[in-house]
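Weekly modeling sync, notes
Attendees: AB, CL, MP (scribe)

Item 1: holo prediction request
CL wants a bound-state model with calcium ion before deciding which constructs to order. AB pointed out that an apo prediction alone won't tell us much about the pocket. Agreed to run with the ligand included and paste results into these notes for async review.

Input as submitted:
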Amino acid sequence: MLKKFCLGAPLFLCLLLAAPTLRAQGKGKDAAGHPWWQHAVFYEIYPRSFMDSNNDGIGDLNGITSKLDYLKDLGVDAIWITPCFPSPQVDFGYDVSDYVDIDPMYGNLANFDTLVAEAKKRSIKVILDFVVNHTSDEHRWFLDSKSSKTAAHRDWYIWRDGKGPNQHPNNWLSTFGLSAWQYDPNTKQYYYHYFYPEQPDLNWRNPAVERAMFDVTRFWYKRGVSGFRLDAVDTLFEDPNLTDNPVAPGTDKFGRPKTIEKNNKKLPEIHQSLQRLRSVADEYDAVLIGETWTQNVAQLKDYYGESNNELQLPMDLMLTDLNFSAPVFREHIGAVDAAGGWPTYVITNHDIVRSYTRYADGVHDDSIAKMMAGLYLTLRGTPIMYYGEEIGMKNTDPESKEQVKDPIGKLGWPLEKGRDGERTPMQWTSGANAGFTKGTPWLPVPPTAKTHNVETESKDPNSVLAFYKQVLSLRKSSPALLEGKYIALNESDPNVYAYLRQNGNETILIVLNMSATKQEPKFDLTKQGFSAPNTKALVQNSSKAPDGPLKTVTLDPYGVYIAKITK
Ligand code: GLC
Ligand code: CA
């Protein structure tokens, strides 16, 4: 940009001319106008389970700080910490009783400041989890709200009369089982909770709620936080008329009649609130990531806002639910890439079965984990990793109802085992408790910690961890991977998913065998401008192709081949 202005002009004039342009690019944007979050690799940390510094069996902020060098070395640019605020821990922190403090089990604000400062030294940004839909029933707002019908905070939550004696206001259901309405005998009304009864929904139609919640974000931005992951945005608003949801055939995993959540999910009002929340974020150059459970790409697109003025990074959680097949992935990713926003890819998180387990076939598990890394870390967009994914951690579910910690697992056992399995302690070493704690870990350490842990894998060039590091480091140094076009190849191949990433003169070929059999795809890149392409392999697993003229790529089951293409 500067160059264009400066041609032939004296230096002072050129700086004068360029100043407004540089300002317009905004702070935090690179020379090509990319905001920081487009090039960043995000990493989700479940603080209870990451690293325990005081040996009470529960991870904490100082534990996270002690592992920042590991994260830096891995290639992480931003960490998202799931809720670490004061909380009765009914939903392990997603029931917040104070938005502007740290729960003593995780440390205190001084520890948090240290974490942010130490992260900054390593150019790692800190993202917090913003539980927007509901508070804890022990939050002072709710305590006041339920104290009387005329309390100052009464209208901060959703209170309604029952339809009659012992009759709920309507047929809406909590996603965590049972009804979404809880009766309060004191004021003789019901309050609405989409999640546990201990998580009453805030009334976002009340401007005072919005003001108070926006102030929460300012508090953390001023403390050095670079953005938020917005929890459960889909359920921010409800139909004020409480229209019943349509009933569908069949029952859900809690044995209740299925309903279509038409009147308490994805209401259009969400968008105005998100736009205003985004304006606040923009003042601080912050990013808003959405926990957006969408059914199709059009719904996902809505969350960017009509003029990209809502969420910068609405997560594509649909990716976590696709059938494992090249055509299915090709079609879905092609649609997300073409939707117009900056994609945000996730393969696993603290609410769903770990990707390692979901895709495992019992024979090629590590290769599949590497292939998935080779896939989603080379797409156009921002990836959000989940702790332990990079070492091939698998789900370790409770074996009996008595062992379950997550309340939905108790309620829904055995169909719903809860989410403990994907939240087990991070596996740092092959030693006692995987090096996570010297105390008794809050969840058992999986047996696979013996083989799949940071210490052991760091020494093994063929480990899942070594592969993640290679791909992440390639990504960082390659403008084509960071921002280049995505071009699907061989679109009728049922087994191999292949594409180019292209930026200016740099072209990268990614070839992924999504099948359990050997594959030998051939490529004709004439249409893409390469009549006689040359290759140079950059990252590989279970694949072969000699450097030089591009011919056949040979891939063993779930093999990955990533190469630079030149004319
Ligand atoms: C989100 C969180 C989940 C939590 C729920 C209620 O889905 O990711 O862990 O239980 O919201 O806050
Ligand atoms: Ca601790």
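Recorded for review: Residues 52, 54, 56, 58, 60 surround calcium ion (ligand 2) (CB under 6 Å).
Action items: CL to compare against the apo run; MP to circulate these notes.
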